[in-house]
Design goal:
The chain has ten helices and seven strands. The chain is α/β, with parallel strands linked by helices. The chain has a seven-stranded mixed sheet with strand order 3-2-1-4-5-7-6, with helices on both faces. Helix 3 links the parallel strand 1 and strand 2 (72-76). Helix 7 crosses helix 9. It is globular, with a radius of gyration of 18 Å.
């Protein structure tokens, strides 16, 4: 059952990231990367680093890393979106190594300075093997930084989304996309209300979501409702994910009060 769920999740993202390949605007910017990192890592530190990303999708974060000055990037993607990466980065093959495999294959790399997994591990039912592989691929003192859906601060949101996802994750693309467009326009109204009232997730909505184009807001909503599996982590669960693998100096940032950025050292 687990293998079937993992395979379906990979297939879902393969379809998603071959349909949605545009990473322009704030959605694909270094400013957003810095927002995800929060106080845990300065984007300036990426300059000259050997970096890997687990779950590269259509290459959004890979582009961010190159723009931030990474010396070399290993992009790991198991889905059909790998073809998008090949097209996008073939001209910079000297700086970007593409690996068509799951995250565990990162252990084949050696002496990486930094490994990122942004919005991926919460879609893997048992991510511990990926985190352990990441530790083996890092040099001594190297860093793993992950971003996860959080449970704290999302209680009202989850009361609506989790039952709804039981339906939406089974819908064909066209039907789900149409529903997400309707929700995008509803979200515009919520965004306007957040400017005047202390509504749930107000900080994220006004400081991040509002900076996205409407097409990117649609994609963000689609990304929430499409995958076969998604876990929302409690703080202690997020910390334990790295601690069990042997990471030290583990630090957490409760990003905009709704998600967890976690950084640990090998």
């Amino acid at each position: 059952m687990k293998a079937n769920l993992d395979a379906r999740t990979v297939a879902d993202f393969g379809e998603q990231w071959t349909r949605y390949t545009d990473n322009s605007g704030y959605y694909g910017s270094i400013d957003l990367l810095a927002d995800i990192f929060g106080p845990l890592l300065d984007v300036e530190r990426i300059k000259g680093m050997r970096v890997a990303e687990i779950g590269s999708g259509s290459g959004r974060v890979v582009n961010m890393l190159l723009e931030a000055g990474a010396a070399h990037v290993v992009a790991i993607e198991p889905s059909n979106a790998f073809d998008v990466l090949v097209t996008r980065f073939s001209a910079v093959a000297d700086k970007v190594k593409l690996v068509h495999s799951r995250g565990q294959s990162i252990a084949n790399e050696h002496d990486l300075d930094l490994i990122l997994s942004i919005g991926v591990l919460h879609h893997i039912e048992n991510p511990s093997t990926v985190v352990a592989a990441a530790r083996r691929a890092l040099r001594q003192g190297g860093l793993l930084l992950i971003w996860l859906y959080g449970r704290e601060g999302n209680e009202n949101y989850l009361a609506f989304v989790q039952p709804f996802r039981a339906l939406t994750r089974r819908l064909p693309h066209g039907v789900l996309s149409a529903i997400c467009w309707a929700l995008t326009f509803a979200a515009d109204l919520y965004l306007a209300a957040c400017r005047f009232a202390p509504l749930p997730m107000r900080q994220y909505v006004t400081e991040v979501f509002a900076r996205m184009s409407r097409r990117k807001r649609h994609l963000i909503i689609y990304d929430q409702l499409n995958p076969a599996y998604a876990k929302y982590y409690l703080e202690n669960e997020a910390r334990e994910l790295l601690a069990v693998a042997g990471f030290t100096n583990i630090r957490l940032h409760h990003r905009h009060g709704y998600s967890w950025t976690v950084c640990g050292e090998r």
